[in-house]
Amino acid sequence: xxxxxxxxxxxxxxxxxxxxxxxxxxxxxxxxxxxxxxxxxxxxxxxxxxxxxxxxxxxxxxxxxxxxxxxxxxxxxxxxxxxxxxxxxxxxxxxxxxxxxxxxxxxxxxxxxxxxxxxxxxxxxxxxxxxxxxxxxxxxxxxxxxxxxxxxxxxxxxxxxxxxxxxxxxxxxxxxxxxxxxxxxxxxxxxxxxxxxxxxxxxxxxxxxxxxxxxxxxxxxxxxxxxxxxxxxxxxxxxxxxxxxxxxxxxxxxxxxxxxxxxxxxxxxxxxxxxxxxxxxxxxxxxxxxxxxxxxxxxxxxxxxxxxxxxxxxxxxxxxxxxxxxxxxxxxxxxxxxxxxxxxxxxxxxxxxxxxxxxxxxxxxxxxxxxxxxx
Length: 375
Hints:
Number of strands: 14
CATH topology of the largest domain: Immunoglobulin-like
CATH architecture of the largest domain: Sandwich
């Protein structure tokens, strides 16, 4: 008999322990049941159950109202704490709530589902106070301490000056760098334009003017000297200087040696390789007379000057080379340097166009950013 009683007692204890282990408890609590209008407080819903059970908390989200006038501001992640060596667990869901109307609010029990069973939390109350104004101390407002007791505290200590927004390099970096980029591009565009217009031209303008034969050039110059021979008797030195320079230019172009840098005797000696003695006899006499006039102040007569002029004409007529009228005229051609300069010109034009487009785009972005910062 005693054995049966002892067995029943042990069975009752085991069932009680099992029932306790399988029990589900839910509760709700708030950080503070008294707040001012617009202040926030925390509402925590906790569930204690076995680890193999699946609780579902109230489906509240931001902007939802628990009751009219009490609004959910934020929903925190679920916090889990293990109990009884991992056999049970406590899960808690925290909601941040607020209210913008002063009143006393009744928060009804909230529904928590564990597996398929519904459980209710305990009800709560929330008191929302308006901000009272102490006419004797307008700089004090009502404040609740950690224990929920209300007290007047200083709201401000007088009027405050308007504080300037602190400078932030991150805000202005785009404006500064963009402006520098625009300045650099403008300088580059200016340099390229100046180089194209005022510097050495990229394309050299080649004017192919028909070149007269040496004898025609010489005969035109001798005709000019002959026309102005009225001063020949008065200034023989200038007369023979112009006449011999005309002959030197003709000889240099005709025979291809530097007659302008040679003396009269050197010219005659060099011409003996090209002409016979008869052809250059009068020319030798002309150069000798010219040397006497220029270096020995020798005076000549007008008829002597005319004779030397005729001698120069005779020499040119006997040694001139006539131009073949049927000769093919060679068309002017661009040199490799000219071709490279043409390509460079187009490259610079393209670069200038791209730089101008980049300047416009960056300038627009800088202005928009500047307006945004100053607005």
